Amino acid sequence: MSELLEITMILCFGASWPMNVIKSYKVRTAKGKSLAFLCLIFLGYIAGIASKFTNEAYMAAFADKWYVLFFYFLNLAMVTADILLYFRNRKLDRLAGI
Question: Nearest-CA neighbor of 82 among 9, 2, 1, 27?
C-alpha cells in the first residue's frame, strides 16, 4: 500500500510540473517565483532518489520497480527546467527594467 501511495504522489507531482514549466516559459517573468522553493523541491527529489538507492529491499526488487525511480528522475528534470527558466526569466526582467 505504501508503494501505491508513493507512486500516486509522484504521478500527481509529475502531472503538475510540466504545466508549471510551460507557464514559466510563456510568462517570461520571474515575478511570483521562488528560487528557494524550487531548490527545496529539487533537494527533496534528490533525497527521494538517494533513499531508493540506499534501500536494500527496493534495490533487490529494482527489475520490477524501476518505474518508481524513473518518475523521480522525470520530476527532477522538470524542476531543473523550471529552475533554468527562473534564471532566464530573471534576466529578461532585468533587461526589461523590471
Answer: 27
Q: What tens digit of pLDDT does each residue of 21-49 get?
A: 999 999 999 999 999 999 999 999 999 99
- Cβ(63)–Cβ(3) below 8 Å: no
Which pTM was predicted?
0.90
Radius of gyration of the chain (CA): 16
Helix (H, G, I), strand (E, B) or coil at 32: coil
Which residue, among 83, 57, 84, 79, has the nearest Cα to 68 in the 3D structure? 57
Calpha distance 20→78 (Å, rounded): 9
C-beta neighbour count of 34 within 10 angstroms: 11
CA 14 to mean position of chain CA atoms:
8
